[in-house]
Amino acid sequence: MKAVHRLMQEAVSRGIFPGGVLHVRVRGRDLFCEPYGQADVLAGQAMTRDTVFDLASLTKPLATAPAVLKLVQDGLVRLDGPIGDILPEFQHTDKYDITPAQLLSHTSGLPAHREYFSPLADLPRKKRRQALLRLLAGQRLENEPGKNQVYSDLGYMILRYVVEAVSHKRLDAFVSDALYTPLGVEGLFFIDLENETGSFTGVRRIPFAATEDCQRRRRLIKGMVHDDNAYEAGGIDGQAGLFGTTTAVARFLDVLLNIYRGETVTDVLSRKTVELMLVPRPDTARTYGFDTPDMEDSSAGSMFSAGSVGHLGFTGVSMWLDVSRDIMVLLFTNRIHPDRNNAKIKKFRPLLHDAVMGELVGRS
What we know:
The structure is a single chain. The protein is an alpha+beta fold. 34% of the residues lie in helices and 14% in strands. It is built from eleven helices and eleven strands. The strands form three sheets. It has a six-stranded antiparallel beta sheet, with helices on both faces. It is globular.
């Protein structure tokens, strides 16, 4: 993949991102996994295959959605049931009848984003979790639930509370205990900012990719979640907070594919449950958790087949999975390091994906 290698080298030299890891996997085997550039330009830290990235919104399909669907599979949550029956704070609001299915598919009527971090930052950390729940319960809807699709962080923030209320475990503990550990997936974790090490020990020794040199926090963000709402909520949330390497993410996607194809049978996740994550829903062009390629100007380029799924993360990470061809392309970068205003990756992603798929399609 010489052309792909050159593209990655040029991306670093042109400042599209300081560094990144490109991981291409075909039929369960690594075809390409190479690091480029620097993980931290201020410290002179080189990018490696073991660099750990802030996965940002990849948290949604890799942690929150499968956690909710696990509870659905176990009969503890109804996809079409009102969240007001789970969360008392929503009982006497216009959001009582919103369902987990609507939150998962971004059709809840909630707005895309709100800067809750500002009022939360003024509160003691121990009071922020409940304060954030009240803010979400009081949030004004922008659309009638079920009518329009608006990609919303807020919906997945609410789903975190759904998981925790039903499982009686914090989101990070639940996904670790109920999903990652029994499925044999290592290296996906959250970082508890109140406990420093959270559910993963040795945080200070991990080779993290740096993100923004943040004026608001007055520090370089490294080894802590970049998303401001998740940060003020303690580092663990439904829309962001997950960390991991390309290898860890590839392993989880492999597990999902193997279950979907019937090659792995486990009571952790059934084929029917995984199908909800990997098969696009006709009414939303999304799955429960994943996105699908846009018809035009997709970040996935033009060569992923129909039915492919993936997701982007604000920090510069992306994953695309061609389910029918069993081709996985993970492009993890630190494009917001040290400045979040660097948006050059938007034009680069489709070029890179077309270059990769152009070399693979004839082999698949």
